């Protein structure tokens, strides 16, 4: 590892030039399947080396001046050719000839100014032609005549002063024609009659300066169902004329956004009486006044948007006749700037009574003074009502506030941002169908007795997040057992630890949000019985104490039994401890957020039940190590991990397993590598954990084994060396003995009578007097005892060495009389001892007897004679006593030694 880290850094920098190389060589088209993307390459010519079978060629954002047909010969399979954002000023008709299959030709943002009859003559198969943002000012004769299959033609942002694109009937399949942002001043019948056979779903004429709708202009078009005339100064009179011209056409959709229609009269839309108009957009008009019966002519209208206007007053006949409207958008539709109460927008009672089919009413971002008793009366099909930020202030919701909705089958009611401060008992009792109630972002501050929700028999979701304070009671939600989602984020929630739990009747609850409440106390049974709970948000509270071991009564297991929980958020709670079994019931958990806590060491097996975890967040904690025994199970199926900003300890034990996992996983790890830095050890401080080289720690188990083997080998070796050093002689001696035994030298245990002598006595010449003096008396005492004494028994004339060998062989034992003299005697040293020992080795270790006449250290004995006391049995080692009275004991010992049977050991 110590080498690995710098190496990794080096190779990281080493990649840079390669990457730059790639970037510079990327100055080529990207071909994927049959699509060639040559955009943004500053090309001045059409590339000639693309695969011939491409069907899409993107040449946008280059510097092409033309598209020479010859260059496309190769690409005859093209279906889509995008040449937008170039400087093409001329188009040759042969282009389409080379591209017979072409369906989409995009030449937007170029410099085309002239289109001739020949330009598109071969483009028969074209379905889309985009010529937006060119410089076409006039269309002469019939350039589009042959485009029989064209569906979309876009000529916006040119300099066209007329809608006339041809002199003959053509474009019979055209569905969308855009002529927006041109210089068209008038719509004239003869300038549109080339569309006499077309069925236009969308005629886009926005942002022109149209001042005139000549008689019959729309009737010239075969069939027109969608007309867009946004951003044109029409005013009410021209609008009225427009509508008259649309009379008896098949118009369905009319968009008149930002047309300076400040007021409508009962005649404005008169002309639309003879149509089946279903969609009308009157947004962004500063519309101030809607006269009674203005919409009386639009009985087929289904979709009306009045967004962003300045309406002052809705009377009971403003919407008269809108029998079929299903969707009404009144977002920001009413006067806003006014400060005095008198000029606040007014909605009279029964204003919506005609809208029998209205299902969706959006009244967001308005400034109404309040809700009147019959404001919504008559909306008998209303399902969705958004009153978000609709009122200057709606301080109290009483049991009469929503009386006018009593007959509406309302499913969703949005009351956010209305400065509501109190909900009185029974406020929603009229809304028995309601499924979703949003009361978020208000100023509600009260005790929830439970009566607030009376009558909400079908309620599924209640949003109460972001209010002033909510004091819970055991009955707070007792009347809404159907509730599935309850949002109580940042409501200064009080009494959550009341018993029985405020949530105990919510058996169907799947989502509970209690975040940002600074809750510090929770009972173990707060969530008991909430078997269906899937999402639990407890972030930004103060729950740390509950999981401390030191907590009086032990850790509080408030998550127990939540077997269907999928998402758990415990971020920012100050947790520094998690008890062992905290998550053990949460076997279906998919996502857990423990970010921004103070967690350091997590208990092993903490996440063992979380094998289906997909997302784990632990960013900004104090985690130093990521080990398998904690993170193995949850990492198995993980797709998202966030462990940024932890003080990782980059050692093999702490981080190696994690780094290996990172290298092998497909999971998305946010912030990698920059936000995963080593804190310790000091030499890696500030480096990314991804630089940590795990090869040094790889397979640490075999490594440890190797270490054990190496160490024990070394120790064994040292032991052997020491043994050989101190006891080597013994080993080699006994080795010698063993070898002789094994090789079949039979123990020679001849009977005493087979030997001529009882013992051969080896002594130094200078010690001969002592030997003579002490051995001959013994012979005299015991007639059977006969020593071989060199001076006396050697045959005269016999060669001395041979005599010695023979004598030793004929003696049962060999006696060494050891003195300083013997050690220095050269013959003894080299020869006699060798033979004696040789015989002892071959026959019997007992056959040698050492008699020490003086104290000789073992090392000297070894050095001089290669003998050691340790080679022999203790009874074969005799010391000549200094005291006279012990001499008889010595004799006795010697006799024992001489009489002992020759045997191994
Ligand atoms: C298109 O041509 C390329 C080679 O130029 C070839 O690899 C590819 O398989 C071809 N695709 C088809 C659909 O023929
Ligand atoms: C061609 O590339 C441009 C820019 O990358 C892109 O906006 C355009 O949609 C592409 N055209 C086609 C037909 O894919
Ligand atoms: C494109 O065609 C022109 C002739 O029209 C030829 O001079 C040029 O080399 C061609 N370019 C490529 C890239 O084939
Ligand atoms: C139009 O495309 C079809 C194949 O879709 C092809 O057979 C036909 O020849 C093309 N027409 C022309 C005029 O290129
Ligand atoms: C339109 O309103 C005027 C009064 O403003 C009224 O005299 C006239 O009869 C109304 N026309 C229709 C068609 O309702
Ligand atoms: C409106 O629709 C009805 C029924 O679909 C149809 O008979 C009538 O002709 C349509 N009116 C116009 C002007 O298209
Ligand atoms: C509303 O509540 C008050 C008491 O607060 C009660 O007198 C009145 O009858 C209730 N109105 C309705 C319509 O229930
Ligand atoms: C209520 O309206 C607000 C503002 O448009 C929106 O953000 C919120 O999602 C709506 N609530 C519901 C439950 O749709």
TrEMBL record:
It comes from Loxodonta africana (African elephant). The chain crosses the membrane at residues 705-726. It is a single-pass type I membrane protein. GO terms for cellular component: early endosome; endoplasmic reticulum membrane; endosome membrane; plasma membrane. It holds the Pfam family LRR_6. PROSITE patterns: LRR (PS51450), TIR (PS50104). PANTHER family: TOLL-LIKE RECEPTOR (PTHR24365), TOLL-LIKE RECEPTOR 3 (PTHR24365:SF524). Keywords: Disulfide bond, Endoplasmic reticulum, Endosome, Glycoprotein, Immunity, Inflammatory response, Innate immunity, Isopeptide bond, Leucine-rich repeat, Membrane, Phosphoprotein, Receptor, Repeat, RNA-binding, Signal, Transmembrane, Transmembrane helix, Ubl conjugation. Residues 755-898 form the TIR domain. It is found in: Early endosome; Endoplasmic reticulum membrane; Endosome membrane. This is Toll-like receptor 3. GO terms for molecular function: double-stranded RNA binding; identical protein binding; pattern recognition receptor activity; transmembrane signaling receptor activity; ubiquitin-like protein ligase binding. Residues 1-26 form the signal peptide. The keyword Endoplasmic reticulum applies. The gene is TLR3.
């Amino acid at each position: 590892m110590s080498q690995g880290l710098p190496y990794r850094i080096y190779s990281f920098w080493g990649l840079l030039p390669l990457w730059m190389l790639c970037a510079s060589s990327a100055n080529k088209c990207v071909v994927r399947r049959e699509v060639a993307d040559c955009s943004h390459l500053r090309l001045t010519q059409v590339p000639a080396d693309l695969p011939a079978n491409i069907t899409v060629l993107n040449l946008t954002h280059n510097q092409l001046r033309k598209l020479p047909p010859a260059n496309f010969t190769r690409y005859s399979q093209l279906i889509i050719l995008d040449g937008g954002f170039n400087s093409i000023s001329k188009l040759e008709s042969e282009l389409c000839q080379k591209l017979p299959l072409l369906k989409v030709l995009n030449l937007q943002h170029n410099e085309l100014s002239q289109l001739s009859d020949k330009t598109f003559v071969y483009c028969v198969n074209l379905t889309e032609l985009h010529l937006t943002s060119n410089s076409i000012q006039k269309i002469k004769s019939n350039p589009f005549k042959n485009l029989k299959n064209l569906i979309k033609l876009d000529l916006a942002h040119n300099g066209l002063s007329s809608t006339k694109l041809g002199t003959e009937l053509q474009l019979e399949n055209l569905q969308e024609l855009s002529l927006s942002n041109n210089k068209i001043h008038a719509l004239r019948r003869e300038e549109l009659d080339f569309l006499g056979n077309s069925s236009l779903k969308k005629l886009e004429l926005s942002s022109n300066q149209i001042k005139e709708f000549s008689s019959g202009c729309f009737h010239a078009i075969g069939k027109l169902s969608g007309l867009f005339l946004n951003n044109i100064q029409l005013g009410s009179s021209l609008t009225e004329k427009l509508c008259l011209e649309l009379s008896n056409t098949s118009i369905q959709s009319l968009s008149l956004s930002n047309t300076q229609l400040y007021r409508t009269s009962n005649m404005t839309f008169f002309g639309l009486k003879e149509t089946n108009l279903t969609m009308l957009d009157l947004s962004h008009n500063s519309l101030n006044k809607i006269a009674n019966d203005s919409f009386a002519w639009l009985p087929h209208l289904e979709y009306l948007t009045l967004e962003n206007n300045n309406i002052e007053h809705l009377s009971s006949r403003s919407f008269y006749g809108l029998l079929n409207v299903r969707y009404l958008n009144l977002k920001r539709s009413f006067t806003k700037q006014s400060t005095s109460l008198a000029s606040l927008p007014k909605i009279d009672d029964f204003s919506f009574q005609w809208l029998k089919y209205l299902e969706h009413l959006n009244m967001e971002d308005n400034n109404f003074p309040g809700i009147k008793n019959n404001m919504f009366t008559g909306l008998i099909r209303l399902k969705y009502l958004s009153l978000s930020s609709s009122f200057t202030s709606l301080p109290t919701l009483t049991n009469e506030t929503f009386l006018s909705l009593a007959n509406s089958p309302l499913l969703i009611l949005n009351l956010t941002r209305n400065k509501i401060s109190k909900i009185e008992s029974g406020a929603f009792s009229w809304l028995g169908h309601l499924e979703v109630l949003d009361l978020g972002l208000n100023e509600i501050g009260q005790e929830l007795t439970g009566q607030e929700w009376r009558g909400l028999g079908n309620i599924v979701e209640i949003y109460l997040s972001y209010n002033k304070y909510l004091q819970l009671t055991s009955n707070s939600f007792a009347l809404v057992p159907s509730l599935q989602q309850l949002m109580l984020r940042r409501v200064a929630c009080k009494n959550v630890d009341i018993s029985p739990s405020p949530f105990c009747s919510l058996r169907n609850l799947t989502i509970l949000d209690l975040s940002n409440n600074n809750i510090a106390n929770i009972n173990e049974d707060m969530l008991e019985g909430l078997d269906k709970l899937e999402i639990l948000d407890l972030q930004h509270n103060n729950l740390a104490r509950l999981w401390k071991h030191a907590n009086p009564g032990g850790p509080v297991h408030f998550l127990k039994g939540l077997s269907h929980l999928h998402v758990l958020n415990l971020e920012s709670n100050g947790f520094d401890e998690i008890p062992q079994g905290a998550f053990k019931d949460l076997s279906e958990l998919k996502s857990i957020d423990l970010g921004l806590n103070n967690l350091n060491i997590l208990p092993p097996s903490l996440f063992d039940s979380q094998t289906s975890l997909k997302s784990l967040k632990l960013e900004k904690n104090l985690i130093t190590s990521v080990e398998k025994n904690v993170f193995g199970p949850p990492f198995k199926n993980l797709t998202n991990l966030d462990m940024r900003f932890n003080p990782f300890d980059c050692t093999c034990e702490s981080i190696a397993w994690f780094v290996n996992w990172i290298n092998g996983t497909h999971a998305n790890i946010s912030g990698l590598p920059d936000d995963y830095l080593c804190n310790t050890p000091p030499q890696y401080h500030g480096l990314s954990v991804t630089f940590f080289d795990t090869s040094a720690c790889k397979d640490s188990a075999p490594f440890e084994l190797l270490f054990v083997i190496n160490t024990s080998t070394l120790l064994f070796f040292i032991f052997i060396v020491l043994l050989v050093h101190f006891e080597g002689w013994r080993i080699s001696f006994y080795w010698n003995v063993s070898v002789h035994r094994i090789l079949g030298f039979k123990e020679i245990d001849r009977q005493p009578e087979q030997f001529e002598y009882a013992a051969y006595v080896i002594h130094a010449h200078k010690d001969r007097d002592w030997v003579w003096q002490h051995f001959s008396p013994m012979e005299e005492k015991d007639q059977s005892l006969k020593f071989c004494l060199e001076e006396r028994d050697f045959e005269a004339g016999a060669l001395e060495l041979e005599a010695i060998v023979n004598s030793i062989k004929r003696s049962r034992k060999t006696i060494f009389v050891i003195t300083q003299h013997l050690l220095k005697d050269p013959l003894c040293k080299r020869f006699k001892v060798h033979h004696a020992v040789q015989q002892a080795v071959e026959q019997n270790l007992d056959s040698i007897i050492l008699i020490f006449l003086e104290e000789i250290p073992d090392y000297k004995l070894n050095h001089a004679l290669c003998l050691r006391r340790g080679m022999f049995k203790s009874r074969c080692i005799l010391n000549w006593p200094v005291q006279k009275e012990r001499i008889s004991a010595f004799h006795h010992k010697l006799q024992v030694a001489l009489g002992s049977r020759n045997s191994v050991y």
